[in-house]
Each structure stands twice: as structure tokens, then as C-alpha cells.
UniProtKB/TrEMBL annotation:
Cofactor binding: number and manner: Binds 1 Mg(2+) ion.
CDD domains the UniProt entry points to: ALP
Name this polypeptide is given: Alkaline phosphatase family protein
Species of origin: Segatella salivae DSM 15606
Binding positions (Mg(2+)): 76, 168, 170, 285
Binding residues annotated for Zn(2+), in chain numbering: 76, 290, 294, 332-333
């Protein structure tokens, strides 16, 4: 694996130069080709009303302790607009408001302004820019160490919990490597070499129904992992050790069907990882926000955002009691270009539309709760989030 030391100001200067080059490329292309950017027509206005809002409590943040654990929560495709819309329909209350600090993050890939979950997630996982669609590798295709790798090498535990298939880009950014996120079966076969301790998500399909006829669950079992096909199996039968919990063939069910599954899976993983006296790193993703941004489907996007917020609440409550855990919430990019056109806090109604069915270059939020949260204010590149976590965990 390629391991490069953080060069501080030098790295920042390289990034600024890279950004200037990207801008010049865009300008030059427009001049030479005499072309203009054509924006997709905005989608029709949609209205969503939340019939049953949930209550939110104020959480007292811990004081005076150092960071032993970090939980990085990624809302795939989530922007400030998603959060404001969710806040509106839940009558002006969200768990994420308990964050002690707020920042803003830039998300460009190394070779284009608008990123994807492969490149954007790789920046969060490894601290380096990479090409659009690349997963856990640099621009030359060389594997990069992730926060999972660094945590394990330092004697800590590491885990992930997602609501998508495990071969999707974001989980792979942390536990796999490939130059193209579309090489799905390759990503899964590479994934089983990660030292990660706890994995929860969908995607059993490419662990056992493969072109190469391998059964990766059998191979993981030989590596010492407990293979579970339901979260209840883990909760009832696993008290310690390494776990792959993959209950679904592809993605997890829709929010109305799965209930609080992400929150329960996250807390199950946290409980197992926390047995390590040296601490842990965990990545939790609200994966399907991105899907409904692509689909321009306001009702499902709000349900996914609210589900992610309730998971944030459960994680923050655990972290507040623990006292040594930093919780960071951010996004890998924005999806859909959502704009709020109206709404009503009293009735929990929001009216919005979308400008695209793809990603945008919108700056995304960064929230932090717990010890070390003061380091996540102001403007930052998404790679800086990695370096801040690495420094605070001393890994």
C-alpha cells in the first residue's frame, strides 16, 4: 500500500494548484470548443408532509476528556438543504442540532469538479484526492491505507455499518481498492483482505453467487469471522470477535420496512468494538439518501434523511455517556441539487424541487460532537477531515 506522510501546508498548496489547473481546463475546453454548459430543467415542485414527527432531546456533551474513539457518519449525497428540509418537516427539531461545531467541506475529485462516492469517500477514508469512480486507490491505481487500516495497525478496532450493498462505493472506500467502482465482484473479493472487525450491510449476492465460483463467506469464516444473516443473530450469539453481518442480497429495505435497523446495527457494532481498551474507529453511512436524490423523489429522500438523523441521535447519546468518543457527521458530495420553495413548520410540510438527477459541486456540511469537535469548524477540504481524525486518534 502507498503511505505518504502528511505534508501540511505543502499538501494544501498542491491541492490549491490542482484546483487552479482543473478550473483552467474547464475554461480552456469551453473556449476551444465554443461550447456552453447546459443545465437540466428543474423538476416539478413536490410536497412532503411528515405525519408523525419524533421528539428530540438536548444532549449534554462530555467535557475534559481526550479522544479515544471516532465515529464518522456519512450521509451519502446530503447537503444543508436536505437537513433544513428534514428540520422543517420534523417541526423544527433534529438530533443533529446537538452538534457542538459546524464546518463546511469542499468535495472535488482529482480530475473533475463534481465528484462521486468513490472519489469523495476515498478522500474521507485515506486523506488523498483520487479520480472520479476510483475506490481506495490513488491516481495511479495504487492502494491507499484507510482509517480502518491505520486504526488496526495502532491496536484499535474498526468497523463499518451501511444501508447499501457492501460493494457500493462508500464502504469500499474504507475496506477495498479498485480503479473503478463498477468492478463490483473484484471489490468484494478484495474486501475480505481488510483487517476490519465489524461489517454490517447488504450485498450477500457477490459473496456467494460469483463468476469465479468462490464462496467468500466460507473464506471469511476461515479467517475467524462470525458470519451472520441477521442482526438478531449477532445480538443474541456474538459477545466478542470479528463479524460480517450481511442480511440482504443487495441493499437493505426501504425506511418504512427496515425501521431503526441502521441505528441498531450501529450500536451493535459500537458495543463490540468498544471492548478494545485501545479504542476504535467506525464509519456509519446513511447510504440511500443518495439514491433518492438521483431519483428526485422528495418523500423517500426525507424519510432516509430522518432515519439517518435518528441514528445520529442514538450514536450521540452513546458518545455522551462514553465521554471519550468524537462523532463527526458529513457527506461525500451533494446529490440532486434540491431547492426548498416553501413549507410550514406547524404542519411539517416542505415544498421543493431538484435541478439534476446527478451529483452537484455544492459544499457539504461537517458537524462534530464530543472531544476534539473544536477542530472541525470553518472551511476545509474533505481530505482534511481524514488528517484531523488521524491526528486526534494518534494512529
Amino acid at each position: 500500500m502507498l503511505e505518504i506522510k502528511h505534508l501540511g501546508d505543502v499538501a494544501q498548496n498542491v491541492y490549491k494548484l490542482q484546483s487552479m489547473m482543473i478550473r483552467k481546463c474547464f475554461i480552456s475546453a469551453a473556449v476551444l470548443l465554443n461550447t456552453f454548459v447546459v443545465y437540466a430543467q428543474n423538476s416539478a415542485l413536490q410536497t412532503f408532509t411528515l405525519a408523525h414527527p419524533y421528539s428530540v432531546e438536548r444532549i449534554q456533551p462530555p467535557k475534559g476528556k481526550k479522544v479515544k474513539n471516532v465515529i464518522l457518519m456519512i450521509g451519502d449525497g446530503m447537503s444543508l438543504m436536505h437537513i433544513q428540509a428534514a428540520w422543517t418537516v420534523n417541526r423544527g427539531h433534529l438530533w443533529i442540532e446537538n452538534a457542538q461545531t459546524t464546518g463546511l467541506s469542499f468535495t472535488p475529485a482529482s480530475n473533475r469538479l463534481i465528484t462521486d462516492s468513490g472519489s469523495g469517500g476515498t478522500s474521507l477514508a485515506t486523506g488523498y484526492k483520487t479520480a472520479y469512480h476510483a475506490v481506495g486507490v490513488d491516481d495511479e491505481g495504487r492502494p491507499l491505507k484507510s482509517l480502518v487500516d491505520y486504526a488496526k495497525a495502532s491496536g484499535k478496532s474498526a468497523g463499518i455499518a451501511v444501508t447499501c450493498r457492501l460493494w457500493d462505493a462508500t464502504p469500499c472506500d474504507f475496506i477495498s481498492h479498485n480503479h473503478d467502482r463498477n468492478n463490483e465482484q473484484e471489490l468484494v473479493s478484495e474486501m475480505i483482505n481488510s483487517p476490519v472487525d465489524f461489517v454490517f450491510g447488504g450485498g450477500s449476492k457477490y459473496f456467494e453467487h460469483r463468476k469465479d465460483k468462490r464462496n467468500l463467506f466460507d473464506e471469511l469464516q476461515k479467517k475467524g469471522y462470525y458470519i451472520a444473516r441477521s442482526l438478531e443473530d449477532v445480538q443474541q450469539n456474538v459477545k466478542s470477535g470479528k463479524v460480517y453481518c450481511v442480511p440482504f442480497e443487495v441493499d437493505t429495505p426501504l425506511p418504512d420496512e427496515r425501521g431503526d435497523l441502521l441505528a441498531r446495527a450501529s450500536l451493535t457494532g459500537i458495543t463490540l468494538l468498544n471492548q478494545n481498551k485501545n479504542g476504535f474507529f467506525m464509519m456509519i453511512e446513511g447510504s440511500q439518501l443518495d439514491d433518492y436524490g438521483h431519483f428526485n423523489q422528495l418523500d423517500m429522500l426525507m424519510k432516509e434523511t430522518l432515519d439517518f438523523d435518528q441514528t445520529i441521535g442514538k450514536v450521540m447519546q452513546w458518545a455522551a455517556k462514553d465521554g471519550e468518543t468524537l462523532v463527526i457527521i458529513t457527506a461525500d458530495h451533494e446529490t440532486g441539487g434540491m431547492t426548498i420553495h416553501g413549507g410550514d413548520l406547524a404542519t411539517g410540510t416542505v415544498t421543493a424541487n431538484f435541478s439534476t438527477k446527478d451529483h452537484t459541486g455544492t459544499i457539504v456540511p461537517v458537524y462534530a460532537f464530543g472531544p476534539g469537535s473544536q477542530d472541525f469548524t470553518g472551511f476545509m477540504d474533505n481530505t482534511e477531515i481524514f488528517w484531523k481524525i488521524k491526528k486526534l486518534l494518534k494512529i
